Amino acid sequence: MAGAAHPEAMAPRKKGPTRTAPPMMPSSWWSAPRIRIYLLFGATGLVYLLAGFLILRLAWALGSNPMAWQSAFDGLSHPLYVIFHLILLVSVLGVGIRAFVRMMPKMQPRGGPLPVLPPAVVRGAIVGLWAGITLFMVLVLSGAIF
Amino acid sequence: MSDEKKTIKLEITRFDPDIDEVPKTEEYEVPTEPGWKVLDAVNYVKDNLDPSLSHRWSCRMAVCGSCGMMVNGEPKLTCKTSLDEYGDAIKVEPLANFPVVRDLVVEIDGFMDKFKSVKPWIIRAKERAEDMENLNERGTYSQSPDELSAFKQFSMCINCLLCYSACPVVANEPEFIGPAAIALGHRYNTDSRDEGAAERNDVFRGEGTVFSCSFANECSEVCPKNVDPASAVNQAKLGAVVDWAKGLILPRGGA
User: Fold this and answer.
1) Does residue B109 carry a pLDDT above 90?
2) Among 3.30.750.24, 3.40.50.300, 3.10.20.30, 3.20.19.10, what is the CATH number of B6-106?
3) Assigned architecture for domain B109-254
4) Between β-strands B74-77 and B100-102, what pairing exists: parallel, antiparallel or unpaired?
5) A14 min Cα distance to partner chain B (Å)
């Protein structure tokens, strides 16, 4: 076993007469590949936090004066910002794939008036929708349309 | 399946609450037969090497859910786990995330508390047998294949507790009612014969319930019956959000 779990994990409301050894976490809790992916998924929260600070800084500069905005905007071409944005892109894609491709098919309610679709169909529909919205956004942002 | 007889080294966690401060590990040399499961090797130790070893088992066919243990760090039903999946050294420990009563036996009363809290039985305002106003409509509760398919998967749970052992939220949030209890509660919420969703949802949507789940998906990975508890948890989350949205936009919450 690895580290200790919370000492009250799975403890009964009413303690029994026998002394028990405290609960331990499984030794594979961090080393199994799928758990590492789960931890990476959780760690992307830090990337979003930093991205939030960056947006606040840019908004602050925008509200200050044109020179402050231009300076902040120009600073985004610094290699560190470029690397950060690449990490942000990977994080967004990773979370998107995990949430929409793995989680969404599991959330599909069974029963009710709608037919239960095979997970592959749900995944395909979600990926298609995501690709369509992404393409639309790229066309708008690049000025190709509107 | 290997036809080879071999001797394996079995490391087993031992804990006697009257003697030991903390669990310790003991090693046993076990001569195995082809086709043996991990449970066979543990039973060999109990029968031939150390009769003081304590562990739970019963049906030997992955139905009773008694023989869940950690095998090389992974929660497994030992009667379903072949020795061929491992090398010559296997480590067997009590289920993770549970207090240990003795050796490989864990305290399951905490699970039973959580399990009972979701009312895993059919709740009806009035049983058909006592419905005297509609005497002629008495009879069995019929259910279509579609209605059955809404919950059948979740009714396959054997309460083996492997999902609790694998779940990182269970390890860190004692209030979390956990995958199997949610799957069983959701199984009754989606049963067309049941009228108790409102009662159960008080438990489902309070503190330490479906929204504590962070979708590690480990419960579904280790489930020996393919119940997919993560699916039940996420369907329950969706149901809670839909009900909340209905409450905001519909008169009387859509009731």
Assistant:
1) yes
2) 3.10.20.30
3) Orthogonal Bundle (1.10)
4) unpaired
5) 8
